[in-house]
Amino acid sequence: MKRSLKQIAAVVSLGTLLSKAGGMARQLVIAGAFGVGAAYDAYNYAYVIPGFFLVIIGGINGPLHNSIVTVLSKRNTKDRAYILSSINTSLSFLLIIASGILFFASDPIVKILGPSLNNEVHNIAVKQLQIMSPISLLAGLIGIGFGTLNASNIFFLPSIAPILSSLALIIGAGAFWVYSDQTTPSFEVSLTGGIILAQASLIGASLQWIIQIPSLVKKGFLRLKPTWDWKHPGVQEVWAIIIPAILASGMLQVNVITDLFFASSIVGAAAGLGYANFLIQAPLGLISNTILIPLLPTLAKLSKPEDKFKFIKKVRKGFMISSASMISLGAIFMALGTPIVDLIYGRGAFDYKAINLVSGLIIAYGIGMPAYLSRDLLVRTFYSLGDAKTPFRLSSAGIIINIFLDWLFIGGPSPWGNQFPINFGAKGIVLATVGVNIFTCIGLLLKLKRRFKFISIKEWSIDLSKLLICGIVSGSIAWLINLTLIPYPGFIWHLSKVIFASSISIFIFLILGRFLRIEAIDDLVNAFNKNTNRPQT
Fold this sequence. Notes:
This protein has helices at about 5-35, 40-45, 50-55, 65-70, 75-105, 105-115, 120-130, 135-150, 155-160, 160-180, 185-210, 215-220, 235-265, 270-300, 310-345, 350-385, 390-410, 425-450, 455-485, 490-515, 520-530. α2 crosses α7 (about 120-130), α5 (about 75-105) packs antiparallel against α8 (about 135-150) and α6 (about 105-115) packs across α7 (about 120-130). By secondary structure, it is mostly helical.
């Protein structure tokens, strides 16, 4: 019996929610066990390439997953099994080669990713990459398997699979936290912790593949006999989808690699960036789902020339709502960065030095938050117009700008020393990303203005300026509240103080926005009300 779309959505949503909760628990345990020490700093370099394979090839909604679902959904059971066998054979062959390269060339690969890493972090990262090199092969098996299960109307298993990776890391990092002697940190202790992180990651990826096997066997899709057939139409269709998507995703990875390249000269920067980015992405994803997802189908329907005025009206509304939500949130992160980081991560090995590092990064991220969501909205605006070239060109230019700003904001390092007096340290890496996002937003807006001459950039700028005023005032009040409230020991008091200061900040932001007659404030409230009051079915 086939399930309805709503039932499928509910199953996937439940699985995704459980996976997100597992991810949060994983990050908290890793923070307590390793802080921003050598083991986790090295892990951020060693995991770059295996993680890329796991997300892009093995991830739900990744290119391989989507291509398998697309192709198999149109085929009968016999044809599905043959296509799967062919793709499994060819892709596994290529990924075995990739895994071998990662294992045997681990030292030069880490050297390229982090040329300025000290010997301790470098050696740990090399060992970790060797251990995690089979993840590349597992990623292919995972992506093919989950795509096959989704095409066969099995959704819950793929959606909860990431929990297994999180669980493996929680157990591994938790055991290290409890049983290791970290009172006298040494290379041996850091190496042991690094090896545990890598082994747990490999075990987690293996479990994601292993749990598929019973369902694949039951459906008759698991064949051990290799099938070499590159000419089958279904096989060619899968490869035609996979290759361009992987190349496009690889371009996005360039900025991550660039940031790590320059961060390698700053002790603990890679680990700090990982913790800070995780904190930022959680609310960003929630707000993005609330605001952008309901808007995008409307933009697609209004993309015809005769609807251009309605189209731009919706784009402007989405842009202002995105800006309002991100300015309000960014103000809170800037005002309460330190207490938020201390509340979430401040235990175990995550000492005051780690708190200071990550809170500084959170404040830097807060500065650029308005550009994050607005950029995503504008990119999707061009996609709805059938124009993928404009975002691609600006993203390509953004890579060059990111390289320059990364270099500039950490002092312009060179073999002859720093060339500039400006040196923001790890915060410079984040500020470079902020600069690229602002550049992309301005470029996309100007391109949109060129296409639709009637757009008033001046009106958009006035409303945006009013929102910035609201953010400065509300953030300042949150900062004063945090400063003046008497500190008491204990988690409950700390949590209450952050919630109270954040609530007052949001309240002031909304009241001031209405006083300044900013239409986006009412739109923002309505958007969240519709989402929370949506009937459950």
